[in-house]
Amino acid sequence: MTAPRRLLLVNGPNLNLLGTREPEMYGTATLSDVESIAAAAAAARGFEIRAVQSNHEGVLLDAIHDARNDCAGIVINPGGLSHTSVVLRDALSGVALPVAEVHITDILQREPFRHHSYVADVAVVHVVGEGVAGYATAVDRLIAVIAGQAEG
Ligand code: CA2
User: Fold this and answer.
1) What is the domain count for the chain?
2) Which residues form the domain of 28?
């Protein structure tokens, strides 16, 4: 079967606040801008995006599980769940799709509690500290991985 040309874009808790608070940390782009940036990067390579943002972990898990049926990979900014959530990590490893983890800020340059991500070692692509442009980088690099898998 041909792999679906669709990625799931997941934004975790509090990322709905993008562009409304803390612009010195997260910039002025909104969540809607972020979803458009990812969609444009995907469209340039013939892919589409299905976007989900939630402040509820279970909603994120259900979206990740559903991606098994019709997505070729997952781009995720888990927000603060990166540093706390074994269940999110288990969901990502359970669906066995290639994952790109993206963070707007450079988590390694911030407080020590942000240095560890439970998602990091189930992701094949890692993008940190590029601002919201990092979502386009993550989409590009994930599609390159997917294309490589299709060839191999
Ligand atoms: O740098 C990132 O993208 C983070 O995933 C953002 C998370 C943070 O917990 C991670 O350590 C790094 C926080 C998302 C909260 O987003 C806000 C945006 C605007 C205003 C307030 C929060």
Assistant:
1) 1
2) 6-151
Give the CATH number of the domain where residue 88 resides.
3.40.50.9100
pLDDT band of 2, cuts 50, 70, 90: confident
Q: How far is the CA of 80 from the centre of ligand 1 (A)?
A: 7
* pTM for the full predicted model: 0.97
Q: Is residue 1 part of a domain?
A: no
Assess if residue 142 is contained within a domain.
yes
- pLDDT tens digits for range 120-136: 999 999 999 999 999 99
Domain assignment of residue 10, yes or no: yes
Report DSSP letters for the chain, one per residue: -PPPSEEEEEE-TTGGGTTTS-HHHH-S--HHHHHHHHHHHHHTTT-EEEEEE-S-HHHHHHHHHHHHHH-SEEEEE-GGGGGT-HHHHHHHHHHT--EEEEESS-GGGS-GGGS--TTGGG-SEEEESSGGGHHHHHHHHHHHHHHHHHH-
Pocket of ligand 1 (CB under 6 A): 14-15, 17-18, 21-22, 26, 77, 79-80, 82, 103-105, 107, 114
In tens, the pLDDT along 41-92 reads: 999 999 999 999 999 999 999 999 999 999 999 999 999 999 999 999 999 9
| 62 lies in some domain | yes
